[in-house]
Amino acid sequence: MSTLARLRRWIGKHLVLGLGLLVLVYTFVPIAVVVLMSFNNNSKSKNVYKFQDFTWNNWLHPFKPGGMKDSVILSIEIALLATLVATILGTLAAFALSRHKFVGRRAANLIIFLPMASPEIVMGSSLLALFVSRGFGGQLGFVTILIAHVMFCLSFVIVTVKARLSGLDDNLEQAAMDLYANEVQTFWRVTFPLVLPGIIGAALLSFSLSFDDFIITNLNAGQEVTFPMFVYGANQRGVPMQVNVIGTAMFVIAIAIVLGNEIFRRRQEKALAA
Amino acid sequence: MSQLHESTTTDRSASGSRDLRLSGLTKEYAAFTAVKSLDLVVPQGSFFALLGPSGCGKTTTLRMVAGLETPTSGTIHLGDTEITYAKPYKRPVNTVFQNYALFPHLNISKNVAFGLERRGVKNVGQQVADMLELVELTSQAHKKPAQMSGGQQQRVALARALINQPEVLLLDEPLGALDLKLRRGMQLELKRIQTEVGLTFVHVTHDQEEAMTMADTIAVMNQGVIEQMGAPNDLYENPTTTFVANFLGQSNLIEAEIQGREGGQVKVRVQGAVASIPAERAHSESGKGWLGIRPEKVLIAEAGQPIDAPGDVITGGFITDVSFVGVSTQYMVKMPWGQELMVFEQNTGARRMLPVGTKVDVSWRPEYAFLLDASQDAKAGIEED
Amino acid sequence: MTSTAGIAPANPHDTAAPAPRGRKLTGYWLILPAALWLGVFFVIPFYSLVSSSLFDPNGSVLTGYDMTWHFANYFDAINDYKAQLWRSIWYAGIATLACLVIGYVLAYAIAFKAGRWKNLMLVLVIAPFFTSFLLRTLSWKLILADDGWVVGFAQTIHLTNLLNFIGLTGTDDRLLATPFAVIAGLTYNFLPFMVLPLYASLEKIDVRLIEASSDLYASPIRGFFKVTFPLSLPGVVAGTLLTFIPAAGDYINATLLGNTNTKMVGNVIQSLFTTQGDYAAAGALSVTLMAIIVGLVLVYVRTSGTEDLV
To answer: Angle at Cα B52 formed by Cα B47 and Cα B56, nearest 5°?
Structure first.
């Protein structure tokens, strides 16, 4: 075989993979920019969309810009609470849908699917219309944001946990009962541990959806300012470089959780195999 | 009621016999009846096989005994204790599931200890170790199920059930997922363990060879009812229905005209010739019938040549197909009335193989023949695959 | 419990084995909280939205609104903002198509070529979600900046001229603050919504079918369009819907990367609600957007013949 033919074969074999990796690289370019800009010193020029000088200052004083600290804290509070509520309600609903037969299941499935298929602007404006029409127009704030976040996280939690439940072998629970575990023991010893990874995944998803939401939040936040709203508002004046520090930190923490989990799992497997 | 339940798990020596008795057991689903008024006694300490094709109701029966399915009517007793509606975790019955159903999040020793721990037994370590030794998995105690081979998983499932010393162990196609060689090994292993522990084993399978290898008693099930029950060799040698004749091994079923009983024999006319069947093997007394004869009981010789140890003889056949399978040669012989008979001949080396097209006579000894009622389908129980 | 119920020693109901699946009320209790939440804060709000779209347009937040069944709100809203409505559909459509092409390559590579790196690549697909959507979108301002190398490169290969020719950029050789930038932003932001369903449906395809197709069809490209692509259609349909719907309602990309002539319907609804306080018009426009999306989805799902997506 000539070198040329071999080269052609090699390219043919790896072309798609290469292109796929290129697409992945493309999705990471903006993240690289966020990380880079978190070290940018823009004191010399107003242009916040150009890297000028390297500095640690943004990382040393991440909450220097006025109002940013409060917005980050608010976002974390809301994300934690919304995650907690949505994960609990969503997990219960997922059990109902995959384990119980009842009238109205199809309707329930449809109502759960719809929020994922509706544009955020429509969901946000609907909620706002409700709050205003019921006379809560002046009281928009923490509670209304939380209500909205639980609402749009719920569907994702239900779908994620349901997927995990439907992948569960029925026989396992029957085996547990056959081995003298009553209903409660069967649930806590077998069902729950096996569904837990799905619940954790759903909670992580909820947290990042909530922390990141802008469109729905913006319509229902009243005077409150979440972190995405802070960034959006700051954009008109020129965003402070510190927002990139928060963005980078969030990214690193999330990746650390995912990778840590994966490494833990692999190491456990290796230890067991030895 | 609760008293009753407790007595099932604790007080097992109260009554002498702990036979498993099903009476009038029926399970109906919306569209069909899976099990029809089943009556069955499984003697304590026996190795009992429920044999039948898929969909015959054998697994449903097993699941009702385990408590995983509620009967529509009928009762299940263990000795004197009724367990028909007892919850699965309140019966002294354990199951080896078809796909093993090992808990993937627990390691092997935790899997095995599961039942004991749920019943509040303390210090289960020694018992688990003993059980793992019995199934030869001591070195694997800390692995997760996913890291084990199919055969090892099967043994874990067995250990996990056996450690509870159930009065009845249910095995739902326990060897179905294993390859042929491993399956043969496990059959002997299961039989050994059953003899050693002396528990009642109820084994559900569609593999007739597996059932015959292991079980003391086989019940052949078809369409929700038991067709015939008995020791493996009785069932094989003297089937009472065409389904059993075909499902358990293979049979030649030839249309016959019943002439009547003469002493200990029933005489029939088979396509002009006369044949006889011992009365205890004749399951029809008049009219038409199916004369049955197992292929290995049929003797064959070139037309006009003497047949070794002859009995009833039918002439005028010719060979349409020959397959050599090592221990035996299998012939298909087309008879004058158009039917093809199977003839299996041992390769004793006494005679050369007969080629296709050879004109032959066939013969069988009357004591090997059996007679079935003609109202049954002669093709019932033949597996199409 | 029909025929021989008399024999049964216990009430078979409370002992019905094995799992408590048959119990009727448990299911309702478990789903009730979530169903209530979605009912009160998703279904009822939509009703509020529709009714507010029929309010007297002369009302305001301060004076309150009167329900006058003012259907003219819809004609006014569509008339005033048809450019933005049309633009939303158009931009979201192009972005979805771009996502399909780019996303298919990635999903195909993960499903069939990634080998043991499959899981890692899947994690990397969703990893961008872990950084703020707004920050990632703002990054494109830097990437597409007028004096950046992307613009320089586009000029060198005359891409800017081509984009100008098809009307996606202006004549000033800029990429930022053009329709192109908005569409590029939408494409970037919603790509994972395309890749994941595509991957899920490609992954289910039996590799032997693809091998058989390379046996039957001379060229791999013909084989792809005859076998692989049709088999992945459920993923294509799910992916395009999951990309198109949020893209059509988005206004962040249009705000951050576009100019005053790239406003989408989301921008309008948002400003009608928050700055102009014209709830009637905003409601009418929201309902119109939803109606257009539902209509498009129905037509699309019908024609592609995959109706059991839900």
So the answer is: 120
Partner-chain contact A180 B164, CB within 8 Å = yes
Residue C9 touches chain A, beta carbons under 8 Å: no
pLDDT digits (tens, 9 = 90+) for A165-198: 988 888 999 999 999 999 999 999 999 999 998 8
CA atoms within 13 A on the CB side of C129: 20
- Taking only residues 216 to 275 of chain C, the set having a beta carbon closer than 8 angstroms to any beta carbon of chain A reads 241-242, 245-246, 248-252, 256, 265-266, 269-270, 273-274
ipTM of the complex in this document: 0.87
Shortest CA gap C62–chain A (Å):
10
- CATH code for position A190: 1.10.3720.10
Asked whether the beta carbons of residue C2 and residue B86 sit closer than 8 angstroms, the reply is no
Q: Please check whether residue A272 touches B, CB under 8 A.
A: yes
Contact C202, C232 (CB under 8 A): yes
Write down the pLDDT at residue C289: 92
In A, minimum Cα distance to C136 occurs at: A30
Domain that holds residue A176: 67-239
Instruction: Please answer whether residues B99 and A169 qualify as being in contact, where contact means their C-beta atoms are separated by less than 8 angstroms.
Output: yes
Number of separate helices (H) and strands (E) present in chain A: 12, 2
Full DSSP string of B223-271: TTEEEEEE-HHHHHHS-SSHHHHHHSS--EEEEEEEEEEETTEEEEEET
Q: What is the distance between the alpha carbons of residues A246 and A209, in angstroms, rounded to a whole number? A: 16
CATH of domain C74-304: 1.10.3720.10
Tell me the C-alpha distance between C78 and C55, whole Å. 16
If phi over 0 gives left and psi between -120 and 50 gives alpha, with beta otherwise, what is residue B227?
Answer: alpha
